[in-house]
Write the structure tokens for this entry.
Amino acid sequence: MQEDAKFALDPAAIGQYEREYIFHSWSAQKSFKPFIISKAKGSCFWDEKGKRYLDFCSQLVNVNAGHQHPKIIQAVKDQADKMCYVSPAFANEKRAELGRLLAEITPGDLTKSFLTIGGGLANEDAIKMARAYTGRNKIITRWSNGGSSAFTDRTGGSGVYQDLGSLLL
Amino acid sequence: MIEVEGPGKIAAIMVEPITASNCRIVPPDGYLQRLRKICDEYGVLLIFDEVMTGFGRTGEWFACNHWNVVPDIMTVAKGINSGYVPMGATIATRKIAEHFEDNIFYDGLTNFGHPLACAAAIAAIHVYREEKLVENSKAMGEVLMQELERIKEEHPCVGDVRGKGLFAAIELVKDKETRERLVPWSVEYYEQKHAAMGELLVKLKEDGVHTYNRWNVLMIAPPLCINEEELMEGMEKIDKALTIIDKYISTT
């Protein structure tokens, strides 16, 4: 089992700094209640008092492999030792291999990946790509969870656009 | 709608194959096939947003695999590397990719395709394969749906349960017959949290289950490595906590 994280700040200071210096997403700032996770493994995490929680939403429905998977951690460590960063203008072993893998696991002839830093930007790039490819401008969406960039806010993801029909950008 | 706007003006239709945080709406069989057909008919591209549904979440590698519908562009993120380093991807068919051989694709940020994120993604994909997590998502998803159906039978406050794989939700209602929502789908909800929904989440937290809701819908999406024991432990706690809502609707 993984050790409890050792924090340089005590829990009270973490909570205070979070409240005072950090903007929190999707909320009126006053409603933010600091909840510190001190350890996580597989389907569970623990709070600072050692209480265990089942993570029934995989954080933001993203920790599919489970928390703190040793093989993913090792891969990040190995890559950090080898080369932390190269600009997108250079060829890179990991990028090349990931592109090939994505083509392999995605259906049909989905082949070429534009790698971004998140889903909202991936959606925005899909819109740009479709517009450039077709030479047309409009995009029809349907209450899709598109992210929160300038484009994708209007695809309905934030939940405040409730037109159950469709929306044109 | 395409005809009203003019088919020659529409670049794409973009949808989540299974509507994700907006209450987990699983389309009926034939829906996505029909969408594909409409797009082909009008020469409009089909974009699937698989950001939340990709990488085994729904019991298949991608949600569109359930209906064998292939989009022209697919977007992914989240499960691509399980969040260990930020990453997303826009994946295009060979035909679209060829267009950009001679035409510039105007985009890119400093940290796009970051080597640390790529390394994490390669490792995550190997983990999904080696540990058969997509298969586990499907198998545990079946256990989950059985449990959800039982919960629906037993609780007056449960109007509907739905999902695929480990991507499910419980819809809470005031009245099982009319399906009147426990909480209205409105902006006001954000400003004035519903007491009973709040109480439900507090109770779950006390009992050691962490999840989130959208209006009257409680989301269930544990990591794909979850075993039956952990899944049932969480479901028993959810089952118990739902009595709060049962009591609430019987007294209001």
Remarks:
- Residues 11-78 of chain A form a domain with the Aspartate Aminotransferase, domain 1 fold (CATH 3.90.1150.10).
- Residues 119-134 of chain A form the longest helix (16 residues).
- DSSP finds five helices and six strands in chain A.
- Confidence is low (pLDDT under 50) at residues 156-169 of chain A.
